[in-house]
Amino acid sequence: QVQLVESGGGLVQPGGSLRLSCAASGSIFRVNAMGWFRQAPGKQRELVAAITSGGSTNYADSVKGRFTISRDNAKNTVYLQMNSLKPEDTAVYLCNADILYRKTWSETSRRDYWGQGTQVTVSS
Fold it and tell me: What is the sign, positive or negative, of the torsion defined by CA atoms of 39, 59, 17, 19?
């Protein structure tokens, strides 16, 4: 069993900053790519940022220069530092991870996991 637990959301004024964290735990053999998605009311879920196990990153154009994704492989944790926040950044932010997990003592399997989501609200 593998879980992703997010933290760090909240209410912030425009121009402010927040840092999101997402920790993977359970019967993990290896965590591959990790990422953050967001979904605003009435809109489709979109990729915000992603990072490979080697540290390569990619970002949505709307957040480039403002958001930074990073990870701590020893802790199986991914972070999203969000600066210069705008009202249009308001959404539920969801963590995603591609994980190779231990199915049995001798067998592994690979699956995509999602966190429960954390609300980010940017408003004055």
Answer: positive
45 compared with 103, residue with greater pLDDT: 45
Task: For 50-61, write each residue's pLDDT tens digit.
Answer: 999 999 999 999
Tokens describing residue 108: 């592994």
Q: Please list, residue by residue across 65-77, b when 16 or more beta carbons sit within 10 angstroms of its beta carbon and e when fewer do.
A: eebbbebeeeebb
The residues, ordered by sequence, that sit 6+ positions from 93 with a Cβ below 8 Å of its Cβ are: 6, 9, 20, 36, 37, 38, 48, 80, 117, 118, 119, 120
pLDDT in tens, 83-113: 999 999 999 999 999 999 998 888 999 999 9
Contact 82, 18 (CB under 8 A): yes
Dihedral sign computed on CA atoms, order 6, 113, 96, 91: negative
Enumerate residues 6+ apart whose C-beta is below 8 A from 109: 100, 101, 103
